[in-house]
Amino acid sequence: MRLRALPLAVLVLALAAAGCASTRVVHEWRNPDLTSPPRFKKFMVIGISQQPGIRRSFEDAFVLRLQAAGADAVPSYRFIAEDGPVAETRLREAVAQAGADATLVTRLLRVEQKYQVSPSYYPPGLGFGFYRGYMGAWSGYYEPQVYPYEVYVSETSLYDTAKNELVWSGTVETTPTGVSKDIARYVDAVIEALQKQNLLAAVR
Predict the structure, then answer these.
(1) Which residues are within 8 A (CB) of 81 and not within 5 positions of it... i.e. 6 or more apart?
(2) CA–CA separation, 136 vs 126, rounded Å?
(3) pLDDT tens digits, one per residue of 114-137
(4) Which of 13, 22, 142, 187 gets the highest tally of CB atoms within 10 A of its CB?
(5) Which residues contact 96 (CB under 8 A, 6 or more apart)?
(6) Helix/strand/coil for 168
(7) Residues 6+ away with beta carbon under 8 Å from 11
């Protein structure tokens, strides 16, 4: 029984490692022409998604987190009801209507398929003679277990709408576990990165 239970234990550990919640900023770019941290009055959060519910949930979560950090922010769906792409003039009108001088635009770049390899070793059984040696070989060998999982690679960009220029951009990797938790972890990771870059100070 002990030998049969071992593979199951290894499987559980491997799945736990592969499915471990993970969200991190893997690359950042900051405009080198910035001589001092910008002081934005209001941020508009724009989530690029063809799924209305996810877009609204993402924008709401981002706005709440920005407000908790002391910044004024609004979700774009209050001013842009359309769920697909809009013309530049329509976007500019929405930004002006919201009174935003900065936008945070998030989009999904790609989904990567990765693999978790777990070393599974089955200890040899005791025995003598050809047949027992043959059977012992089956219970004492190394066979790696491979478990596929997905990683979502997204990008959030901060724009100065008055100057029409990119201020900051970050690439984020997320191992999905559930939409609500994924959104919360993503927003926290981006907010932390912006705070470290001193790009979140806002004049209220």
Answers:
(1) none
(2) 7
(3) 877 776 655 555 555 566 656 555
(4) 187
(5) none
(6) strand
(7) 118, 145
